[in-house]
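Hey, weird one. I pasted the Bifunctional SulP family inorganic anion transporter/carbonic anhydrase sequence into the form twice and got a warning about non-standard characters only the second time. First submission, copied straight from the form history:
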Amino acid sequence: MSACVPTRTVDPDHTERTHPPHSPPPGPRRFRVAGADVSAAIAVFLIALPLSLGIALATGAPLQAGLVAAAVGGIVAGRIGGSPLQVSGPAAGLTVVTADIIQQYGWRATCAITVLAGLAQLGLGCLRVARGALAVSPAIVHGMLAGIGVTIAVAQLHIVLGGTPQSSVPDNLRALPAQLADLHPAALSVSVLTLALLLLWPRLPGRAGRLLRAVPAALVAVAGATAIAAAAGLVLPKVDLPSWRNHALAGLPEGPVLGLVAAVLTTTLVCSVQSLLGAVAVDKLVSGRPGAGPVGRSDLDRELLGQGAANIVSGSLGGLPVAGVAVRSSANVHAGAVSRNSTMLHGVLVVAAALLMVPLLEFIPLASLAALVMAVGIQMVSLHHIRTVTRHREVLVYAVTTLGVVCFGVLEGVALGIAVAVAVALHRLTRTRITHEEEEGVHHVHVRGQLTFLAVPRLSRALHLVPQGADVVVELDGSFMDHAAYETLQDWQSTHTARGGTVEITGRRAGVRIAEPAALTSGEPADGPEEAGASDAECRCRPWTAWRNHQCERPRSLPDGDRPPGTTDGKDGEDRAGGTDGVAAVEPEPDGTSGDQLVRGLSAFQRKTAPLVRGELARLAREGQQPAQLFLTCADSRVVTSMITSSGPGDLFVVRNVGNLVPPPGAESGDDSVAAALEYAVEVLAVRSITVCGHSGCGAMQALLDSDPGGARTPLRRWLRHGRPSLERMGDTSRPTPRLTGRTPADAVEELCLTNVVQQLEHLRAHESVARALKDEALELHGLYFHVGEAQAYLLTERGEERVFDRVRAADLAM
């Protein structure tokens, strides 16, 4: 029987925790809520309370329904859902849908429809199709939200002016002139005051403003408008919360079956898509939060189950439909929440307010809530989203979806958006631009787009414009070529070369010859052994195509008279150089090799990259640079800042020198170049963070270790004297040695590399501009170590006196 008992590995570093032999066994673990969760719950509660009432008002539902949905969303969805920090409740994106259903079927039937939508969400969650919702084009989602925002804003404008909204946007717009002629000064003044506080409160200047901004602007706006309205004695319609004993619960819906099914599907669609996209957005916020704790990524299928359960409970209790709310979720993350306890506690606070604060809530003017919801609706039309869809050439999908939602309704608008998105996708698939031009005696045929049989006639016309015997370059700028296009191109190539012409066919991967589609997908060389070096299976540069353009491109064959001595054409050259790692196999050329590589790289940039980035670089040229980070690193060629930080033009202000050194301030340092860069970055560019990045195998650190104090004072030795404090710090046994997660430094060079990052951060703090920005909390300092051999980044964290470089995981970057 002992053979069935699993053996335990003895850990020499493990310490057993035992209790005295006569003491009772440990009791059950007590439920604890972290302080960060408590403060985050309070912040979210202060935002949720006025917004829940305002959304209920905008839908035409009983005002208690907004409080019920907020409480259920916090407690039920917060406990069951798969996104720990997403806050659910009544969402502005559901306002139009819910208002239409209430108008058609009544409030009790709307509650039943909410329950059915929750059951549908449970079914979708059990089928594990949550990821499928992310396949919806962002242009459709943003267009839907923009259309809902316009509808909300136009409807609430009537309440702001003291009137009553109509049932649709066209009706509201037609009634607007009459409403403007019949203004209610009291309602308008309260609304204007609410909007002014909403806009100005987040912009309070100075240190006092920074403290006051901790109070949510929505709460300040509603509370301030309420207090002034009460002090001035204004007679206005106010919040009316009847007794909970008279609260209406769900009832059986009555009406056409198809209409009820459409209402359930619409509610399910909007709730699900908004919640799932919100969960993905929360993951991004958490991953970008400095010092993010161990908050796991969202489980989207579980999130769908949680939202379904919340809608069932909310509808059963007479509440509004529930979905993830972006405003509350972002406030939860920014307030420092570390677990789902913050979301649940906010729901408990809403329950307490609904039971104990009714007399205070009934002082709130309806015009103030309407102004709050109108501001939320306006914010749903995001200029950032419009710029994004314009940049991706999807503005037509966005505009059609928005107009469809505004004019016809949410379901109809989304259906129109999907139809237009499919049409645009088909148009792009079948649209191929083929051009022919001649430059310096060489004919260029450029194919942009997918090369299918539909484009074969235009391809043939362009190829027949090339005269016999001419040199031709055919550039294929697309990701797909079907068999008909392949045969057309190959037949023309054979005919043209047989008549004395030359043909070079290149694709997105520069220097790779065209191949049969099956050969490319199998990873085999297309044209025999001589093309093996350029195949995907062999090329070591594949992850970074910009580098591949000059590292994996086979140089063109030179005429015999121009070939450098000692080189031959074809397979012999590959045998002599090894020719097995996918790099162009030629012997070193004494004249012009580096220059050729430079020209090839520049040519590839002008041909491939420049057309793609020209617009963004033109914008940066007009607006000037506004980088968020100063990145100070070593001049080592293996450390590529844009690659390891996934950054692009305008993102990083980079300073490079030998050893990533920061000379301390003072005239004795004898070098002001780094100090000038620091001053410019902090005081002119107003960067928000400075990163000092060291790396493994640093030659400067090796030179420091090997330095001879009595040696010649070369420029390199004079510069490296700024690294001697790092060497002294490493030799100080009273200080803990910096280490990587889970292990000590591999050798003295790595230990000095880590110590140097820590020491240079101290030098940074001594500079006046940096110290001033740190004092004003306008700047953060980061230490980074990049292990070249592992392609692994490590971020510096301080644990008391200990300095530990924590591994940056791939999962962290994907969040």
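That's the output from the first submission. The warning seems to come from a hidden character in my clipboard, not from the data itself. The first strand starts at residue 88 and ends at 89.
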